[in-house]
Amino acid sequence: MPKTLTVWFLFFIFSFFLAASTGSTAATQTKVTNNPADKLVAVINDNRTAHKDSSLFDNPGLACLALQYIKAYQGDCGAVGGPDAKKPPESQFVEVFAPTCGVKATTLAPITGRFLGCQTKYVHAPEAFSEILIRNQKSLDLLYSKNHTQVGAAVTGTDGGSPYFWCVLFGNGKPNSTFAFEGGVAKATKPGCYSGANDECSGAHDWSPVNVMWIFAASVSIAMGFAFPL
Ligand SMILES: *[C@@H]1O[C@H](CO)[C@@H](O)[C@H](O)[C@H]1NC(C)=O
Ligand SMILES: *[C@@H]1O[C@H](CO)[C@@H](O)[C@H](O)[C@H]1NC(C)=O
Ligand SMILES: *[C@@H]1O[C@H](CO)[C@@H](O)[C@H](O)[C@H]1NC(C)=O
Predict the structure, then answer these.
(1) Which of 83, 103, 118, 193 is least crowded, fewest Cβ atoms below 10 Å from its Cβ?
(2) What are the transmembrane regions (predicted)?
């Protein structure tokens, strides 16, 4: 036990040293990579409000469904668009997506639109928005639709890597009584990130020094979590 503590202490010192030596840039950058799904919702709402449309409520239940929607593709980018495009059957929302998320089926509201994109290269939320998801007038019309009251976004890399999927679901209904979690608690369905749940999440393994630093810090805190109950 004392030995273990010493090791963790050294880890701590080492990570502080690293953090200090990389300076404040690391802190700012890591914030930027925290939860790309939340970033995407921010981009969507900025664009809507600039167009004089309402800002949409970021519903974590709806966002979790978006993550399950991505998972239905099982990493098959080819099924997302083009001539072989596929779409999960609507029945999956009630039968699979909602139970997986712990969203009460009775609180499901109409889905008023969806964006889905897939790409082998990881890009950040603003580029995912402008380069992958919004491609033509049809997608802009959908973005600006008055039928939406809420939104949920998800991003995932297959097995934590390429290809990367982005999904946005728009919904109707009252934000705080629809797409509600059982017991009001968001359920984690890793891997992948979804919006609205106030959690930090990394969408990509980007091996730039800053992100390596972040992964290192994360592994320390996870290890710390395991160390405490000993
Ligand atoms: C909204 O997004 C579209 C598509 O990327 C872009 O053409 C337009 O300039 C954006 N509007 C604003 C105000 O940023
Ligand atoms: C909004 O909803 C109405 C009625 O359900 C539908 O006819 C219309 O196509 C929808 N608009 C958009 C942009 O989806
Ligand atoms: C529902 O949301 C509204 C604002 O959108 C808020 O004023 C109200 O307190 C919420 N109700 C509950 C039960 O959380």
Answers:
(1) 83
(2) 207-228
3-state SS class at 113 = strand
- Residue 191's pLDDT is 84
Q: Are 229 and 21 in contact (CB under 8 A)?
A: no
Coil, helix or strand for 198?
coil
Contact 1, 166 (CB under 8 A): no
For the structural domain made of 35-204, what CATH number should be given? 3.40.33.10
**Angle formed by the axes of helices 2-22 and 24-33, to 10°?**
100
Ligand 2 midpoint to CA 145 (Å): 8
> 107: Cβ below 6 Å to ligand 1?
no
Please state the domain extents for the chain: 35-204
Q: Beta strand 193-194 with 150-158: parallel, antiparallel or unpaired?
A: antiparallel
* Residue from 186, 202, 159, 205 nearest 65 by CA: 186
| Number of other CB atoms surrounding residue 204 within 10 Å | 20
- Which residue's CA lies nearest to atom 6 of ligand 3? 176
Q: Which residues contact 156 (CB under 8 A, 6 or more apart)?
A: 67, 70, 71, 164, 165, 191, 192, 193, 203
pLDDT digits (tens, 9 = 90+) for 160-217: 788 999 999 999 999 989 999 998 888 777 789 999 988 888 755 433 333 333 333 3
Count of other CB atoms within 10 angstroms of residue 96: 17
User: From CA 150, how far away is CA 127, in angstroms rounded?
Assistant: 22
